[in-house]
Amino acid sequence: MPLIDVSIARGRSPEQLRDLMDALHQAAVTTVDAAPENITVIVREVEREHWSRQNVTIAERDAYSASH
Fold first, then answer.
1. Which terminus has fewer CB within 10 Å in the chain: N or C?
2. Strand residue runs (E) in the chain
3. Bridge partners of 3?
C-alpha cells in the first residue's frame, strides 16, 4: 500500500501537479507492482518563502535570478 508524499515549491499549474501525481502513481504500479487502488499520492505545496537550502530561500533565489 504505497503512500507517496511529495513536497514541492508552490508555483506549478494545476495541470503540472496532476501530471506529477499521475506519473508517481504510474511509477508505483510499474516499479513495485502496486495495485492501483492501493496507491495514495499526496503533493504538498510549500510557499517559496518557507523553503531554504544553504540558508537562502527559493523566493530569495528567484529575486536574485530576476535581477541578474
1. C
2. 3-9, 40-46, 52-53, 56-57
3. 40
- DSSP, res 55: T
Q: Which domain does 35 fall in, by range?
A: 3-67
Total of domains in the chain: 1
Q: Please report, for the domain that includes residue 36, its CATH number.
A: 3.30.429.10
pTM of the full predicted structure?
0.87
What's the CA gap between 49 and 3, in Å, rounded?
27
Q: For residue 43, what are the β-bridge partners?
A: 6
pLDDT tens figures, 12-59 = 999 999 999 999 999 999 999 999 999 999 999 999 999 999 999 999
Q: Which residues are registered as beta bridge partners of 6?
A: 43
